[in-house]
Amino acid sequence: MTVPSPGSRLVDAYDLVIFDLDGVIYLVDRPIETAVAAVGRLHAEGKPLAYATNNASRRAAEVAALLSGMGLAVRPDEVLTSAAAAAGLLANRFPADSPVLVVGAEALRAEVRAVGLRPVTRLEDGPVAVVQGYAPEIGWADLAEAALAVRAGAEWFATNTDRTLPTARGPVPGNGSLVAVLRTALEREPDVVVGKPAPALFTAAARQAGATRPLAVGDRLDTDIEGAVRAGLDSLLVLTGVTRPAELLHAAVSERPTYVANDLGGLFDPAQVVHLPSHVTGEPGPTASGSTTGGFTASGPTTPAASGWQVVADGATALLTGSGSSLEALGALCAVSWSGQPISTVEPESDSARSALRDLDLLH
């Protein structure tokens, strides 16, 4: 783990920043203003960047054009998509001109063609594989053909298993929800899942940039952050997309980020990012009252540096007291909840605590 020196900028500790897109840079096609400003600043400073997305509905050049339209100077070779990665795996597995049943957007079909395979749409075309990616126009007939092809012996590739997609109106069903339809019908898992949380997109980005200290930035625990953990990378969770603070408190060890920030401003301002506790190895330490606090033995810092918050947990209920930023309160709560004392309810002991919990949507 790379740890920035106190008071230094987070971004300066890393030689590559790998961004997720949906929920980090934009919501659907609407840019997140703070993200656009942050990425523009990184470009101006010459920081190497990459973009790794599970979205299989656009090719790399289309993603770069979309980002350029938002005012970001992004090259196609900086973009890694699950569609291109899936097509590459298919090309390594099957001979040229093999028929592949594509359930997804035109971008996925184009990637399959680009590697010398032949996209098809029906069982009667004899597909050797099914590749499934998100597209809003996918319907029952598409899923039925895919189910029939897999039952007939075709290998099943999923570009990703994201259950939801972030939108300005809230999360909506993603490719993982469509994969779940086939999983239910076939009573089996896909043969290959290409995108995050598989580490391939992250490791490819680091290899391509020649980076030795990459930082992965994402908005969801079960794909971006778990993928970074699997790849052995430090990660920053931003709260502009899918994951909310309550989910972070209950994150599995495999889904725990290194840092959390409200948005990409945390890359530059130490006051806008919190270094979360490392994976906990010890047990919570008892207090005189038999409850637990953040003072357990752990493999890293148990509370954010300079945090003025204290957390006392009694069973699944925690009492938050003290003062500081809302993010520091979240870090203190994670330190206790990740210690083996899972928190389901947090009560404030002061107006400052009440305000922080309100900001975090943890006030009940």
UniProtKB/TrEMBL annotation:
Chain intervals with Low complexity compositional bias: 281-302
Q: Which GO-annotated molecular functions does the record name?
A: hydrolase activity
| InterPro entries named among the record's database cross-references | GNAT-like, HAD-like_sf, HAD-SF_hydro_IIA, HAD_sf
Q: Where is this region: Disordered?
A: 278-302, 344-364
Q: Where is the GCN5-related N-acetyltransferase-like domain?
A: 308-362
Work out whether the entry's keyword set contains Hydrolase: yes
Arranged from A to Z, the UniProt key words for this protein are: Hydrolase
Task: Please report the name of this protein according to its UniProt entry.
Answer: HAD-IIA family hydrolase
Q: What NCBIfam families does this protein map onto?
A: HAD-SF-IIA
Q: Origin, by domain of life?
A: Bacteria
Q: Name one Pfam family in it.
A: GNAT_like
Identify the species of origin: Plantactinospora solaniradicis
> Which residue positions does the secretion signal occupy?
none
PANTHER family attached to this UniProt entry: 4-NITROPHENYLPHOSPHATASE-RELATED, D-GLYCEROL 3-PHOSPHATE PHOSPHATASE
